[in-house]
């Protein structure tokens, strides 16, 4: 099939088939996300999908990855060049299913919606302009930015895009036909006439009827029986299994990696026998680098942040390797195809870690000696969320003075998401929104959504001559909830902070100084090598690695507690010793021949520990 000329992708009049140039066409799609893959590896991952028997790539566009600040778009730097990725798919003879949101879920922070939307305290997300014009005005600006990029890439114009998805799994959120239609109209106004499709679980689709006019239907966790059900209930349009799960997502603190035992062989065999269309979610997961990993709430409302790895137990591993699942599914799919599959691409080179000595970072700096100027104080105002301060990710320090004789119980139980508390120069414990293993909680005096008893500050070395002592609350924002009705998930101290004194009186704590610590590229590049108090947690450690050649590697953070790692300025993501993830993936393109800098920020440790380089994820 020549992908360089224009093609017509449509639906048969009876809704039975997808049609490519008028002929029935089976979509065999594998999902991967450019935002989770170093740009240098895009072509390799696309070729891996083709060699497993796919003829199509499905991809999300994460809105908040491209409009990090209101009205400022980036579709060019690094792995944000969506057009380049789609053209690579075309060059590798792969069609594309485009899933641009505006909401995508994807175990991505806020489901891909920009956190700056939450600066308005009464904003309503994922709704039509009659309900909240502020939200839809932002969506319209986003789609207006996409349209000239996407239009030339549609199959009718000689590009590889077959269909565009309208929103994502909206039936799991609400029922609002006006909203879905308004989204469709935005694309039509830009001259993109489809074809369109929607994605939902079958029960949600049946309950909320979340389709768009003339749009195909894709099913989350879909199978042949569900496709047949949809064909009976919606006979005018075709249906496909839009998300077929070869693995599953994993949260911090879970016993192991999810999805290890999944086997799709029988499901895939049925699809191939009946020539039903499907999309494997995901064929390759990659990595939620930086601060973009999302979170969920369980049935009881407990917060569950996602690990940094998005390996997903997918057929193509986080590092791009063909797993045993890959080989099994490739052989199965190939048995139904008339032509042999391309050879499996060569394995990406690994760093030779055999016999390598562990890195031993040295103390480099303290967050306390790198505080920016405090925001202008608003007298009597309570602490606010990150979003109200205009910050998306990282940390915020909330500081106020207390009388040095103050003792009592501090209530910051509504913290989002993880707070370490200091009285003067001493660590006093902390509060976590996520439930913690008992051993971890006890060793660090961490409470789970409960008040924290403060020690006496009378002899605290942080006291001032005026008899005051600093109360400091360093709050880490972890992933925003990315699925369901609780996605309005602001970060920071979300309720008034109170202190119950030993005499039983309750005090509302006000007059806070606020320090924004985004831990972004600029902040890290401008760190001062300074540490006044090496015994106060919140420290940076640095190591140098001299390499004569580069390759993919993992940094084993088993000896560390909770924090973030940068390599040559690239944020590899979070580590946390509650597991199950212990190692962070570092792709070779982020390393150089010669000296490489590894920077670690740990919330708890005041002593450096070794970091072993490894040649596999676990």
Automatic annotation (TrEMBL):
EC number: 3.2.1.23
Signal peptide location: none
Domain Beta-galactosidase galactose-binding: 539-596
UniProt domain Beta-galactosidase 1-like first all-beta: residue ranges: 383-435, 468-517
GO MF terms held by the record: beta-galactosidase activity
UniProt cross-references to InterPro entries, sorted A to Z: B-gal_1-like, BetaGal1-like_ABD1, BetaGal_gal-bd, Galactose-bd-like_sf, GH, Gly_Hdrlase_35_cat, Glyco_hydro_35_CS, Glycoside_Hdrlase_35
Keyword presence, Lyase: no
Catalytic activity: Hydrolysis of terminal non-reducing beta-D-galactose residues in beta-D-galactosides
Active-site residues from the entry: 169, 243
Domain Glycoside hydrolase 35 catalytic: 18-335
Annotated TM spans: none
Keywords, alphabetical: Glycosidase, Hydrolase
EC category name: hydrolase
GO biological process assignments: carbohydrate metabolic process
Family statement: Belongs to the glycosyl hydrolase 35 family.
Protein name, per record: Beta-galactosidase
Lineage: Bacteria, Pseudomonadati, Pseudomonadota, Betaproteobacteria, Burkholderiales
């Amino acid at each position: 099939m020549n992908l360089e000329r224009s093609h017509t992708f449509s639906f048969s009049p009876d809704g039975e088939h997808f049609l490519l140039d008028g002929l029935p066409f089976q979509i065999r799609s594998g999902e991967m996300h450019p935002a989770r893959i170093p740009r240098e590896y895009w072509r390799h991952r696309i070729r891996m999908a083709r060699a497993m028997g796919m003829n199509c790539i499905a991809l999300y566009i994460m809105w908040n990855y491209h409009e990090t600040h209101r009205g400022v778009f980036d579709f060019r730097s690094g792995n944000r060049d969506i057009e380049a990725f789609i053209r690579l798919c075309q060059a590798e003879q792969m069609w594309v299913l485009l899933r641009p949101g505006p909401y995508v879920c994807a175990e991505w922070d806020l489901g891909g919606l920009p956190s700056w939307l939450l600066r308005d305290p009464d904003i309503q997300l994922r709704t039509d302009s009659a309900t909240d014009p502020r939200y839809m005005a932002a969506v319209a600006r986003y789609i207006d930015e996409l349209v000239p990029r996407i239009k030339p890439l549609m199959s009718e114009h000689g590009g590889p895009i077959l269909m565009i998805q309208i929103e994502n799994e909206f039936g799991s959120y609400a029922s609002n036909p006006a909203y879905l239609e308004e989204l469709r109209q935005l694309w039509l106004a830009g001259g993109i006439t489809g074809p369109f499709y929607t994605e939902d679980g079958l029960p949600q689709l049946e309950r909320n009827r979340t389709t768009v006019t003339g749009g195909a239907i894709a099913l989350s966790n879909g199978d042949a029986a569900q496709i047949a059900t949809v064909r009976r209930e919606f006979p005018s349009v075709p249906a496909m299994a839009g998300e077929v799960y070869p693995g599953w997502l994993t949260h911090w603190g879970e016993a192991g990696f999810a999805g290890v035992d999944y086997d799709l062989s029988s499901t895939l065999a049925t699809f191939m026998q009946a020539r039903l269309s499907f999309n494997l979610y995901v064929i390759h997961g990659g990595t939620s680098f930086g601060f973009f990993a999302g979170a969920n709430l369980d049935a009881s409302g407990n917060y569950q942040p996602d690990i940094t790895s998005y390996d997903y137990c997918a057929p193509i591993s986080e590092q791009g390797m063909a797993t045993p699942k890959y080989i099994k599914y490739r052989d199965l799919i190939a048995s139904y195809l008339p032509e042999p599959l391309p050879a499996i691409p060569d394995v990406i080179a690994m760093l030779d870690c055999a016999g390598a000595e562990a890195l031993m970072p040295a103390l480099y700096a303290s967050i306390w000696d790198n505080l920016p100027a405090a925001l202008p104080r608003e007298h009597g105002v309570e602490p606010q969320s990150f979003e109200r301060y205009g910050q998306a990710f990282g940390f915020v320090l909330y500081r106020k003075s207390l009388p040095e004789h103050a003792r009592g119980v501090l209530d910051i139980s509504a913290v989002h998401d993880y707070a370490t508390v200091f009285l003067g120069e001493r660590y006093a414990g902390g509060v976590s929104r996520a439930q913690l293993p008992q051993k971890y909680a006890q060793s660090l005096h961490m409470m789970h959504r409960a008040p924290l008893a403060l020690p006496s500050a009378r002899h605290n070395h942080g006291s001032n001559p005026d008899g005051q002592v600093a109360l400091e609350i360093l709050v880490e924002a972890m992933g925003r909830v990315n699925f369901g009705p609780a996605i309005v998930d602001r970060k920071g101290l979300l309720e008034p902070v109170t202190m119950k004194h030993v005499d039983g009186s309750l005090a509302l704590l006000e007059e806070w100084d606020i320090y924004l610590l985004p831990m972004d590229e600029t902040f890290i590049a401008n760190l001062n090598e300074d540490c006044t108090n090496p015994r106060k947690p919140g420290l940076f450690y640095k190591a140098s690695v001299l390499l004569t050649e580069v390759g993919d590697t993992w940094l084993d953070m088993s000896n560390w507690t909770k924090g973030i790692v940068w390599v040559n300025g690239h944020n590899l993501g979070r580590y946390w010793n509650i597991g199950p993830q212990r190692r962070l993936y570092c792709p070779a393109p982020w390393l150089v021949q010669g000296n490489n800098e590894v920077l670690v920020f740990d919330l708890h440790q005041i002593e450096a520990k070794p970091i072993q380089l490894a040649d596999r994820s676990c």
